[in-house]
Amino acid sequence: MTKHENTEQDLQARMNSEADLAAKMLEYKQWAVVGANSKPEKYGNKIFRRLRAKGYDVYPVNPVYKEIEGEQCYPDLSSLPSKPEVINMVVSPKRGGAFLKEAAELGIKYIWLQPGTHDDSVMSLIDELGLTALQGCVLVATR
């Protein structure tokens, strides 16, 4: 086997693993969108609306808002009335760390990282906290 063939196999295995993780996460119906907002053109709002439209129980999390799309908005994960199974991150890497630490403290294991929400420090923190993360766009995954 050549090095090139091995690399292609590794890539395919990783892609299959990511697809399996995405499918598993999408089976859970209780989500929180960290970075949800009231601006329809922004991804935090689009993701919140899409997940609700697909039948998910979704909590908007953003300390700036009291309400989003007619739903109470929560300042942090600890304020939620019940524990979500998955957190969708729609905040910059510099804001994400506190929410990731809070998720770990609350026993929330699955983190869906939207494009632009992660960097090396976020990925290191996720590993350190023992969280399971997927990098990808939930809007694409829920078409």
Structure explained in plain terms:
- Helix content is 45%, strand content 18%.
- It is α/β, with parallel strands linked by helices.
- The protein has a single domain (3-141), classed as NAD(P)-binding Rossmann-like Domain (Rossmann fold, 3-Layer(aba) Sandwich).
- It has a 5-stranded parallel β-sheet, with helices on both faces. It has a two-stranded antiparallel sheet with strand order 3-4.
- The longest helix has 25 residues, at 3-27.
Compute the number of strand runs: 7
Spatial order of the strands forming the largest sheet: 2-1-5-6-7
Mean pLDDT: 92
Note the beta-strand portion: 15-25%
**What is the element string, with H for helices and E for strands?**
HEHEEEEHEHEH
Q: What gross morphology would you assign?
A: globular
What percentage of residues falls in helices of 4 or more residues?
A: 40-55%
CATH C-level category: Alpha Beta
Count of folded domains: 1
Could you name the CATH topology? Rossmann fold
Distinct helical segment count: 5
Largest sheet: 5 strands, parallel
Rg value: 16 Å
N-to-C span:
38 Å
Low-pLDDT ranges: 1-5
Give the CATH superfamily.
NAD(P)-binding Rossmann-like Domain
Task: Briefly note the structural class of the backbone.
Answer: alpha/beta
Per CATH, the architecture is 3-Layer(aba) Sandwich
